[in-house]
Amino acid sequence: MTQPNLGNSIFTRGAVDLSGLGTPRPAPQAPQTGATAAGGGVAVIDVTEATFQGEILDRSMSTPVVVLFWVEGDPSSAQLIPVMEQLAAEGNGLWTLAKVDVDGGQRLAQAFGVRAVPTAVAIVGGQPVNAFEGPQPEPALRQWIADLLQAAGVDAPQAEIPLDPRLAEAEDKLADGDYDAAEAAYRKYLGENPGDGEAEAGLAQVGLLRRTEGADIEAAFAAAEAAPGDIAAQTLAADLEILTDQAAAAYARLIALVAKTGGAERETVRKHLVELFGLAGPDDPAVAKARRQLMTVLF
């Protein structure tokens, strides 16, 4: 991003000097008119010379403030403002966007050394820490805000990444019990995004639900107990254990079966177990433990 020239601004003297702006009036105590963040704090405010002290300097002692200088009718300002407002709203009160209309706040703009609009200056603890000029791509703005919060010692929550619409559609089909459509959607997505963990887990879920549809749980467990070497009985019992939140038991069951079998039968059981691992994900502690046990049995 282009860094604005702050060489002649009030900040180069080591402290914020408002003498050139006259005596500032205290920040108004009335309810704010700016946009409110989901966390209850004010996300976006309009600032004038009269409210500068309270809305920017005082506020920045507890919350980072990004002062955005803009001009009515300026295309670049019109491009940047809605993006910054959206990011401020998403911040849930972790930082505040303070907008200053340069036409009505020329002395503020001069005090900040603003030479072009739009210009954004980040204020933390009453002092500037970063700045940029002109419209910027949204990803760059998000990173700039993240860097600001990190520098200010603010713990920002990880942004939730929206689910790909194609995966969302596959999940909807799966929830509706349309396994064929769900499988087709997941396979299509994997064809375009090989190795995607979410799609692979979704495909494994389709297989699990298909295999267990209409199964009698008590009868299935009884059959598995009566025939410890029966692959079909043991894999069905393992599937049902997964569905009933007994993943560790399911893994142990199939690892024991791998130890008892050989050749093609062993490979069938191993593949079934690996598919069940995919439902939980590689970071699951139970999966990590079971993988180590499986390696011990295999080698």
What name is given to the CATH topology of the largest domain?
Answer: Glutaredoxin
Strand order of the main beta sheet, please?
1-2-4-3-5-6
Radius of gyration of CA atoms, rounded to a whole number: 30 Å
Roughly what is the average pLDDT, rounded to an integer? 86
Beta fraction: 5-15%
What class would the helix/strand composition place it in?
A: alpha/beta
* CATH architectural category of the largest domain: 3-Layer(aba) Sandwich
Q: Which regions have little confidence, pLDDT < 50, spanning 5+ residues?
A: 4-19, 22-33, 36-40
For the record, what CATH class of the largest domain applies?
Answer: Alpha Beta
Query: How is the quaternary structure best described?
Result: single chain
Silhouette:
elongated
Helices, by number, come to 12
Count of discrete domains: 2
Helix content: 40-55%
What summary fits the major beta sheet?
A: 6 strands, mixed
Instruction: List the secondary-structure elements in sequence, H or E.
Output: EEHEHEHEEHHHHHHHHH
End-to-end separation: 55 Å
Structure summary, number of beta strands = 6
